[in-house]
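Example A, followed by Example B.
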Amino acid sequence: MYPRAVIFDFFGTLSQSASTTERSRDHAKVAAALGVPTKDYEAALRRSWPDRARGALGDLAGTMRWLARACGVEIDDATCAAACAARIATQRDYVRLRPEAEPTLRALRDRGVPIGVVSDCTQELPAAWDTFPIAPYVDAPVFSVEVGLKKPDPAIFLLVCERLGVEPSDCVYVGDGDSNELPGAEAVGMRALRLVAPDHAGAQVFDPITWTGACLTDLRDVLTLASG
């Protein structure tokens, strides 16, 4: 049976992974803008990730103020603005779409296959979404920070299906495996496939990836599933 819809993760799947070295370098830039030690800022980031991904800390400015307080300081408006600008700039650096991402999504669209994206993310991704060349091909982008849900919550997978007008059993889900997304997708009835790419080596993950199910090594491999 060919899938009626294909749903993709974003970071590490449609985009290439950022290494822990890159992230540490850029965390230092934001920490400097906040005026806090990098190690304290990184600890606050790790601790707050589930809440940040669900939008529970407010908008970007509110999040920056929360992170500063978690590091023991209160920041003024100018410092907050500088930290927000640094955060946006560093997050932009992480969005390097895979060369095969746009052609794959375009080919799926040409075949009439609906496309969804489910991403655990903070405010920067949805704010920039319309500037990405893949955006016109995605029928249902679902961002955790906007919907208040985070993978592997079944509700976020069911939401993208609802927006696409399909049943979970009709969908293939493709992701790098972080956030326990693959078992989460399987649990609601989707067929889950893990993308395994060279840039995943050394990439930051928030949850250990223990997936032993089906894998693919190139996004274009999904076209063989949707060729009927």
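Example B, a separate protein, is given below in the same form.
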Amino acid sequence: MKNSIKLIMLFVFSVIIVSCKKEDKSPSYHKGELTILTDESFKSVTEALADGYMINYPETKIKVVTRKEDLGFLDLLQGKARIAVMSKELSPEEVKAFEEQVDMKILPAKFAADAVVFVVPINSPKTSISMDEIKNGLQSDNKEFIFDGTNSSNLNFVAQKLKKQPKDLKFSVIPGSQNIIEELNKYPNKIGVIGLNTFSRPYDKTSEKLRELVKVLPVENNGKLYTANSDGLREMKYPFTRVLYFLTNEGNFNIANGFIRYSCTQLGQMIVEKEGLQPYNIYKREVQMR
């Protein structure tokens, strides 16, 4: 009789262990590890959102890895990562490749309006730049525009706006947007092309120091000047406004989709706003009381 009871207890204990193991393997948005691929241009906002998520869900561990936009997209296709931050509009071929290789419909999760901005040294006499100057300059052998590298989000986006392929543009390279700002005074006749999020944090000391080194040039288009400020981004009037979005190959509601949902909620959008970017999903509302 005692042996029978022992066998029953052993069986029950085994079932409990197996059940616990199954539960541990089940999808979870509030615990586990996740790597997010992001271009350097929007690394700051991505890290801020990751920090917010980990504060809300202490059992999660999120690592933000810098990867050029095109290469990050390829890693997503090949299953080397579960989530990537993107800005460029994908071509029909890229959409098809994603849906065939990942075997799910592509669902961009838009979360912020950012911008590509054109900067000159703080003491430069230049006060604005026109669309024609940008178009002509990127076809000139002078290579007066400095980008942070090939395959970067900034180069991809500008090329797309000008309806060109990146390989057809002529430009100089200084790796890293922060390096462009810090070294631009060595090249007084050059114009740096960087992502706004590089130095958009209003009260961040590093961002403040970087903003003191350069002037952001308003862009003239059809006789009007447009600035990459909150109004220019919110209303998409600034010509080089871009929308940041997440792509994931995660088919269930695990940590990647949990992070995306968090980033698009009011709490996540408040973090976007504190980064100096325009939240995509919430807007300030003014109410007049009478």
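On Example B: The first strand starts at residue 31 and ends at 38.
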